[in-house]
């Protein structure tokens, strides 16, 4: 849920500005800001999913009772991925329906996904138990995200910053490789080491790849403070 709260915070900070720009300066200015918003939204959520999946077992080992450790560790990657897809759908792919004053599109997608989720749960839970429920949830939110991308852009075309998204994935992979080497270590000190090393690698990759114009942002801020 922390992942969803972070994505929601980014949305709450940016969406009112997108609407304001759309009303005052037009579609082009709003879409330019939307592009920055999309990069920021994915730039915090994609590495969070990767990090949670790899650091999660240590966190579970520290805070969850022995009886539930195995099941929670097994479910964590599925649940974190499902939460990411839910957030990406709600805070990115479905926004065109709101900007284009076509909220019925969101309800139609929600209805389709609700039925799909029930069917998948009916099929998977008897076979896989809790893991089946988690997989059903992930698949349902993946469909919701996909439908939002396909049909939302027909209502209000929004930017898809493919180049920056590729860079974010690359930076997240670099962070993931670092965390993979540390994933079997246990304890509070190792948790701090995992989090700090993963964050350091990701931020270094952000600067190296210049994701979202990070270098220019830091340079401009430094010059203003001088």
Automatic annotation (TrEMBL):
List cellular component terms (GO): plasma membrane
| Compartments in which it is found | Cell membrane
Q: Which domain of life is it from?
A: Bacteria
Membrane topology value: Multi-pass membrane protein
Q: Which keywords are on file for this protein?
A: Cell membrane, Membrane, Transmembrane, Transmembrane helix
Ranges that cross the membrane? 34-55, 75-93, 105-125, 131-152, 164-182, 188-209
Name of this chain's protein: Uncharacterized protein
Biological source species? Leucothrix pacifica
Q: What is the lineage of its organism?
A: Bacteria, Pseudomonadati, Pseudomonadota, Gammaproteobacteria, Thiotrichales
């Amino acid at each position: 849920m922390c992942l969803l709260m972070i994505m929601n915070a980014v949305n709450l900070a940016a969406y009112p500005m997108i609407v304001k720009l759309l009303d005052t300066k037009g579609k082009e200015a709003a879409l330019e800001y939307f592009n920055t918003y999309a990069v920021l939204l994915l730039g915090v959520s994609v590495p969070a999913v990767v990090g949670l999946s790899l650091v999660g077992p240590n966190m579970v080992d520290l805070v969850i009772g022995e009886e539930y450790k195995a099941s929670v560790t097994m479910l964590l990657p599925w649940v974190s991925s499902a939460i990411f897809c839910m957030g990406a759908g709600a805070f990115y792919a479905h926004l065109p329906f709101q900007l284009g004053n076509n909220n019925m599109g969101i309800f139609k997608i929600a209805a389709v996904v609700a039925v799909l989720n029930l069917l998948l749960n009916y099929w998977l839970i008897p076979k896989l138990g809790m893991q089946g429920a988690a997989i059903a949830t992930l698949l349902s939110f993946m469909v919701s995200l996909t439908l939002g991308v396909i049909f939302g852009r027909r209502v209000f075309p929004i930017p898809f910053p493919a180049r920056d998204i590729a860079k974010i994935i690359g930076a997240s992979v670099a962070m993931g490789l670092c965390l993979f080497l540390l994933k079997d270590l246990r304890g509070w000190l190792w948790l701090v080491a995992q989090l700090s090393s993963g964050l350091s690698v990701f931020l270094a990759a952000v600067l190296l790849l210049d994701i979202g114009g990070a270098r220019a942002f830091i340079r401009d801020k430094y010059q203003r403070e001088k």
